[in-house]
Design brief:
The complex is a heterodimer of chains A (170) and B (602). Chain A is of the alpha+beta class and 170 residues long. Helix content of chain A is 28%, strand content 41%. In chain A, the strands form two sheets. In chain A, strands 5, 6, 7, 8 and 9 form a five-stranded antiparallel sheet that branches. Chain B starts with a strand and ends with a helix. With 602 residues, chain B is of the alpha/beta class. Chain B contains 22 helices and 21 strands. Chain B is globular. The chains are: A alpha+beta (170), B alpha/beta (602). Chains A and B meet through α1 and α2 of A and β7 of B.
């Protein structure tokens, strides 16, 4: 195909919360050679009957349309929404970041954390654990700053995303 | 029957003595009359329940792969859902090839697999395999039943999923305790499925766009696939009506053979790698293409960037993921093939636009010029003692079976392509072949399934001597159930298609493609209580065919054919439709024109 421009897509998939459904989605991506840049999943209905999967992927327009169609034909899938295409949306992830150090580096880490509005959720004399929420690039930027200051461990949730405005995914 | 419970929603639920009994009742309610299976420890409760009833017949195969192919043959020749029953572990893993075959060719199946009891799952128990894990990508959908109260709902749902939308295989994994414990029976729900709702009715706006393009076309082509067959015989009738109404040429894929009558003058033959010259040239030169129920498979398109370069493309398919997967199209119609054709016919009649009949007539002149090449031509020497050409064997078989209700299945390879080229199908559901997966060993068990569904019909497996050995054990099944399947082996002592590619693309180095140490097929047939026949020379052929057709028992006819014969025309991998190789009958230089990139393709 002449279309070779890659784009990133944030896709929300509303699924029946049943055993194996995540394996179906992941198997589809690995089996057909699609990228997964980020993937999150959790139940979103009060009775736990539906889960929402947010997957960030990249590919040509044709590949992304194909990914959506392939997801849409899985039996336990209710709805597939391409948030990147369907209008403005918000995307956030959360990271827990352990920074180990003493002296100036420790002070600098704390100052930067404050600038990024990261919360200190655990501290010892030689370490902090920061909690930071934001867009992926904000988290990346913060982690880059922490690296020389004693970054020891990171746990990230991956992206959760939602469309702006009053319209809701079914 | 332990009691009746009426639930809040008004559905009547009745307790059954065992899950196995509830299962059989659900199968019966789904109209199942035959199951292809093989017993084992985990499914003993089901076999015990089968023993105690008469409504559902069980056909005991000799290998689980064959059970699945038999169910495919049954399904493809009847339009109904084929049912398979196998045990846990090796029973399930042996079935996997058949499941993928059915998935690729969109064949509706329900496969029941036994599983170790729920409390042992994950324990590496005897004959345990993670069947739902293994078959997740091998089925349209699969289920593991963990609670007795889910059992019959899941069975009903599995049939619904298997046969609606784009059909496919659905697997239900049944732990042994679920089969033994009492289970409630409930009827199939009439409510819509929560999440699975395939679209079948086409969008009228897209139909109108399609008709506008088609009306203005000067060099049109209708390209029909297996989706037309899957949509039922009505779809094939509508296809004929549409093609006659428009005056367009029609080609079909391998899976679509029979969707349009091969004897009709508007049929230009199968297209693709071994399609006719005219079908591929029409595709290459078309200005508007209507693809209905086909998926732009790589065997059809050849090199993608040279595929039908000048055409506006309309693609009608029930599966949205088939649209724009490999070929970008101008008009996409999501819907059932029959519903789409019905809408196209109505819209065509209502459309005030006039066709350019003169342009269409000119297009037919061009097509007739291509047709005159007679690209399937071959030369059979008639002098006694002459070697039999495989194409001639198929042609004579076709002539001898005309006028009889005949179903053809095939294995995979050269014989499959010759059958597709030289056996003419005028009706849908009479041609069963492994198109997508290309499974050697498909034909004999599939023929078994067809014969079970159509006991009085003539069922022939056109085979190669290598493929037939992949499920030869099913000769035992033919004998047990007195299924008079005819196995017509084009024996060229080679895995012929492998040999052909080695000749054309790998410098005549016939690496491991010679069928060494073949059995004596006549004696093999006899040892399986069947009739064995052999034709060695051209003068034997008609007699052997006549004898084969006259016998009301299973037959293996070993037809010794020319070892050197290749399938032509051929579009080498990575080549365009207009770069097709013709046979030795046509002088075309003999250079396959294969590039390194093409060589890497299969």
């Amino acid at each position: 195909m002449s279309d070779t421009n890659m784009r990133s897509a944030t896709i929300s998939v509303l699924v029946e919360n049943e055993s194996g459904v995540l394996a179906r989605v992941i198997g589809l991506f690995s089996g057909r050679g699609y990228n997964i840049d980020s993937l999150t999943v959790a139940p979103v209905e009060r009775d736990g009957s539906k889960s929402r999967i947010t997957v960030v992927t990249s590919g040509t327009e044709m590949v992304i349309e194909q990914i959506k169609a392939q997801l849409g034909r899985l039996v336990p899938v209710y709805k597939v929404a391409d948030l990147s295409k369907e209008g403005p949306h918000l995307a956030r992830e959360l990271a827990l970041i352990k920074v180990v150090g003493t002296g100036d580096a420790r002070q600098e880490a704390l100052r930067l954390a404050d600038a990024f509005r990261a919360r200190v959720i655990d501290a010892s004399t030689e370490s902090f654990i920061f909690e930071l929420t934001g867009a992926t690039d904000k988290l990346d930027a913060f982690l880059d700053l922490m690296r020389p200051l004693g970054l020891a461990e990171v746990s990230r949730t991956g992206v959760a995303a939602i469309a702006r405005g009053k319209v809701a995914i079914e | 029957m332990d009691g009746t419970i009426t639930t809040g929603t008004g559905t009547t639920t009745e307790m059954m003595a065992s899950g196995a009994q509830a299962l059989l009742r659900a199968l019966k309610a789904q109209g199942v009359d035959v199951i292809f299976g093989y017993p084992g420890g985990a499914v003993l409760p089901i076999y015990d329940a089968i023993f105690q009833q008469n409504a559902i017949r069980h056909i005991l195969v000799r290998h689980e792969q064959a059970a699945v192919h038999a169910a495919e043959g049954y399904a493809r020749s009847t339009g109904r859902v084929g049912v398979v029953l196998v045990t846990s572990g090796p029973g399930a893993t042996n079935a996997v090839t058949g499941l993928v075959d059915a998935l690729m060719d969109s064949i509706p199946l329900v496969c029941l697999t036994g599983q170790v009891p729920t409390h042992l799952i994950g324990n590496d128990a005897f004959q345990e395999a993670d069947t739902t894990g293994i078959t997740r990508q091998a089925t349209k959908h699969n289920y593991l039943v963990k609670r007795s109260e889910d059992l019959t709902r899941v069975v009903h749902e599995a049939f619904h999923v298997a046969k609606t939308g784009r059909p496919g295989p659905v697997l239900i994994d049944l732990p042994k305790d679920i089969l033994i414990n009492p289970a409630p029976y409930s009827e199939a729900s009439t409510a819509q499925h929560r999440s699975y709702r395939p679209r079948t009715e086409p969008d009228p706006a897209r139909i109108a766009e399609a008709v506008a393009l088609l009306k203005r076309s000067e060099r049109p082509i209708v390209y029909a696939g297996g989706g037309v067959i899957n949509a039922g015989p009505e779809a094939a009738k509508l296809l004929i009506e549409f093609v006659r109404l428009t005056g367009f040429p029609c080609t079909t894929t391998l899976m679509g053979l029979g969707a349009y009558p091969a004897s009709d003058p508007q049929f230009v033959g199968m297209l693709g790698m071994h399609g006719t010259y005219e079908a591929n040239m029409v595709m290459h030169g078309a200005d508007v293409m209507l693809n209905i129920g086909a998926r732009f498979d790589d065997r059809v398109t050849g090199r993608l960037n040279a595929f039908s370069p000048g055409s506006k493309k309309i693609h009608a398919d029930i599966d949205p993921s088939s649209i724009n997967k490999s070929v970008a199209v101008d008009v996409a119609i999501i819907g059932d093939a029959a519903a789409t054709l019905r809408a196209l016919i109505a819209a065509w009649k209502n459309d005030a636009g006039k066709q350019d009949r003169e342009a269409i007539a000119k297009w037919w002149q061009q097509i007739d010029f291509w047709r005159a090449k007679d690209s399937l031509r071959f030369t059979q020497k008639r002098e006694p003692g002459s070697i039999i050409k495989p194409q001639y064997a198929i042609e004579q078989l076709y002539k001898a079976t005309r006028g009889r209700e005949t179903f053809i299945t095939t294995e995979v390879g050269q014989h499959q392509m010759w059958a597709a080229q030289h056996f003419k199908f005028d009706k849908p559901n009479h041609w069963m072949t492994s198109g997508g997966l290309g499974t050697m060993g498909y034909g004999l068990p599939a023929a078994m399934g067809v014969q079970v569904a159509h006991p009085d019909a003539l069922v022939i497996d056109i085979a190669g001597e290598a493929s037939i050995l992949m499920n030869i054990q099913e000769m035992g099944t033919l004998a047990q159930y007195r299924l008079p399947v005819k196995i017509f082996i084009l024996n060229n002592k080679y895995m012929g298609m492998v040999r052909q590619w080695q000749e054309l693309l790998h410098g005549n180095r016939y690496s491991e493609s010679y069928s060494e140490a073949l059995p004596d097929f006549v004696k093999l047939a006899e040892s399986f209580h069947a009739v064995g026949l052999r034709a060695e020379k051209v003068e034997d052929l008609d007699r052997v065919i006549a004898e084969m057709l006259a016998v009301d028992r299973p037959v293996i006819a070993d037809i010794c054919v020319d070892e050197k014969e290749n399938v032509f025309p051929m579009i080498p991998s990575g080549a365009a439709h207009n770069e097709m190789l013709l046979g030795p009958e046509h002088k075309n230089g003999g250079n396959p024109g294969v590039t390194d990139a093409g060589l890497a393709l299969v």
